[in-house]
Amino acid sequence: MINLKIIIRFTLVIGLFFSGSSIYAASCCGGGAAGALILPKFSRVMVEGSFQYEKYNGFYGSDRAYYEDPPASDLNQIRLKAAIALRVSDRFQMALSVPYVWNKNYYSGMNLNSSGMGDSIVSATYETFDDVKCVYKVRTLQDLMPAIYISLVNTIPTGISPYSNVDNSFKITGRGFYQTLISTLIDKTVYPYNFSINGGYGVHYGRPVNREYGVYKKPYEKKLGNRWNLGASAGYTLFMENMDLVTLVVSYDYINEAGARIDGVVDHLADFYKSSIGISLSYTTSDKNRIFKIGYTANPSYAEWGSNSPVTSIISAGVSNVFK
After folding, report:
1. Which domains does the chain have, with CATH numbers?
2. What confidence tens digit (pLDDT) does each residue in 305-318 have?
3. What's the pTM?
4. Which phi-psi region, left, alpha or beta, contains residue 314 (left: φ > 0; alpha: ψ -120 to 50)?
5. What's the whole-number mean pLDDT along residues 53-65?
């Protein structure tokens, strides 16, 4: 029999992986936060392909304590994502991100594998500045001005959710709800150093539900709780002899979501939060047209780092191509 806690945490984790700090200087080479792909200043198009391997390493209970997964369980998710960002005007850009998800799980002596589309993201971003904010030396106060991006990030439930025709949580690839999030990214590079902070606030839209995990129920209205997130990163860039760039970034992210509303009644037992730390390495060609990235993000397996959420580690890799 599948453990109820496993079901809960699998449901919660979908959608968490789209949040994170910028992994490199957005105004110079592109970047992103809260799922919004960001095109470099003065560039027309950027396409990106990325891979994520996420391993589940236990969970945080509602008491904020850390608990290990049951013995002999092995829970994993693999994601491939294709994304494109297009410049609409000097200060506006739009982006689309579409993931495909594989669930690779072993639990209670059973192999529980599945695959399908994940939830897609459509975003629109406004740049508050007119020139690149990456500088090599601070000569005036203006040189300290950061690049500020304001994004409207919309999640489209194109994945398989608990309300689809599924009989267990191991087949889930999406949350089943539309969401709109307003995100701000503040990024500054004074070579060789880079610093960024980002934050966002998101609202889910309610929907009628009459089926969960393949079982039909009396219809009710459900709305996931509002979400907010904060993140920060710091990086160092090494210039190669051919002027290619190698950038190392460390990051911290926090995400918090209120409990869902069922027929207008809030389920406070479903409130959750989690913190994560990460490190990433990117290689950018001298013409800044191609960026290769690898990264590692993890939730520490200690008490107080989360509540009602899974403890995972994520290995990621990707490549971006910029067209000017």
Report:
1. 4-323 (2.40.128.130)
2. 999 899 999 999 99
3. 0.89
4. beta
5. 92
